[in-house]
Amino acid sequence: MTKNDFYRYTLDPDKASDAWFYSLVEKQLDRHLNVNPDVELGVIKLWSDILIRDGEQILGVVGTGLNLTDFLNQMVEKQDIYSAIVFTNYKGAIQLYQQASLIDYASITKQTLDKKQVFHLLDDDASQQTLKRHYAAAKQEPNQVQMAFVHRNGVRQLASVIYIPEIDWYQVNFIDIERFLPLEEFLNILIISLISLAGSLVLFYLLISFVVTRPLKVLDTSIQKLAQQHQVKPSLGRFAGSEIKRLVRHYQKMSQALLDQQNKLEQKVALRTAELERLSSCDALTGLLNRRGFNEQMDLYMTDWEAHNESFGLINLDVNQFKSINDRFGHLSGDIVLQEIANYLTALVGDMGVVGRWGGDEFLILAKEADGNLERIWRHLQASKTPLSVVLQGQLEEIQFSFGQSIIQPGESLEKLLLRADKAMYEMKFPTQRS
Fold first, then answer.
1. In Å, how far are 342, 382, 402, 403, 425 from 385, measured between CA atoms?
2. Where is the GGDEF domain (predicted)?
């Protein structure tokens, strides 16, 4: 299998469909979430993209798509007709909404004027400016609800804004209070109260308080908790009216469905992001840490050395005659040898240290000195004259290594530590060239 077997197509910066890739690289967004339709599959997906780096150099982009079609359909089915829920990115571009036509697909590639923003759903400039101020306030206090009245669809509505820092999105809820809590629902109660208690204002006040005011206050508290992603079941007294109870039941179903869907979305995004982070630090061929992942481990060891004086060492291991193996048996057999070496080193080191593939046929081992792990690994390598045998195309091939080690010294950098281990390895590999 050659690298051409994995080739699909080449991205073109002049194509609108490929512009997302170059926008991510240009803006250097290490992690980005974006909603975009998959035309070939006929679905809408939430794309999670992560930059692949070698130090400061950007090598490419790796990403995965989460199908949002069912989630959007459920939003349309379960949302109340008197309310609307909108998810936007950090610039207000609509990412999730019950009206799919208003979703700002591929917002990373668009200019601000071309974006479908939540502010454009409002009727006037004053409402738009109010919502923008609450966006800024919400980002200053993540997971805290910011509320304001705005004009939308010709009526005055309550807008609540909450910032979700984990995915750098905002959730905006619009509620038509006058239709969500219609006074007509309580007309029968008011008529009965006026006829029955016309002569007693005090008793009338107490009745309204028990039947309406207190249950609505409980419901209002529950709605505020819901905005903080906490579901609190309203506890109604025995005198609460049937209309209030029906309203509360409807609210409970809606809030439960909303929280369930939001939790599922957050869990899926978190799982996909964690998996992408793992893959970006892992060598695809051997399963060992790649250069980026091994650098992170060296930084951790260096931190322990500087903070607690926990000395550690580095072993540089190179495969002898690896080019000859590739020339005689082919690169596929060379890959098999690298995989067998990775398995051998993983079993040898175990939990005594960390193994990584630095590049090509070069491997690195990191271990602490105080517990004797570094010395045990080093002696085992020295004792094995022919540590590994691999059958390649029916022939038994003996695999040998050259290796060298270096132990961290006071004031020494990781670069110098790597250089000394590399030099020690080459002295073993080419003893006649020692200076």
1. 18, 7, 10, 12, 15
2. 310-435
